[in-house]
Amino acid sequence: MKTRELLLALLVPLTWALGFTVAKAALDEFPPLLLMSMRFFIAGLILVWFVPIPRHCLKDLFWISLVGSTVQYGLTFTGLSMIDASLGGIIVQLEVPFSVLLAVIIFRERPGLLRIIGMTVSFIGIALIAGKPSLSGELEGILLTASGALVWAIGQIMYKRISSQIDGLTGIAWIGVIAAPQMLIGSMIFETGQVDALMNASWVGWASVVYLGLIMTVVGYGIWFTVLARNPVSHVMPVLLVLPIFTVLFSMLLLGERPSLEVLLGGVTILAGVSLIVFSKSNTRPT
After folding, report:
1. What is the rounded CA–CA span in Å between residue 178 and residue 66?
2. The pTM is what?
3. CB within 8 A of 251, min separation 6: which ones?
4. pLDDT tens digit sequence for 22-43
């Protein structure tokens, strides 16, 4: 990968990590599903004018949006509302071993010894974090965020089945269009205080919504798919390994969080396992 392409690729984890930290601040003002509904509404509204209508796979996109976005973000960001952004940014890295595990089960892919070791190490890392006594009160948030990572992986497996029929940007645009109302309905069913949140949100809350929809989703994924189109997946994917590092740094700088040594140790363990998977000979993680 050329230096220019590498620097462009690094903007993606930087953008997403800041977005994860910004989302944590926004969750103090908005219920999780309402926040994600506004995020995807913005992204879909901007992108849908520049892509075709994928009439041949709208039904598939409905179910992908429901599972891979609505349910997944509901779990992930409800969990994030209960734990530190730095911890949440570490736990979501379980998306990688979960994706590999599901690919083995569903597509009968052979992961190889290195990936098996990587998956084992990653799950040991989450066990180290979840088993820390001082985090026992945050166990629900940890489990919800980890469940979100599993559901994300399921959504990616679902998307992989139609990936040859639709390009990435079109997929993101229409997932946004479909997921936004799904999330709003989910918010109406499972959450409360939406009107008060909208009426009393500060400029920080609204700025966070705009960042999540415009920068994190439209710009972030736009860059991501541009880089992926120009370079082999195996060259680009390792860039995402710096995502939890950026998330921890932003959470410390902007939110004043101070991750404990045990959390950092568990995070390094998870990252080591993910690294083994990403740097193995072929890459199984869906894009």
Report:
1. 8
2. 0.84
3. 21, 24, 84, 85, 86, 89, 257, 259
4. 999 999 999 999 999 999 999 9
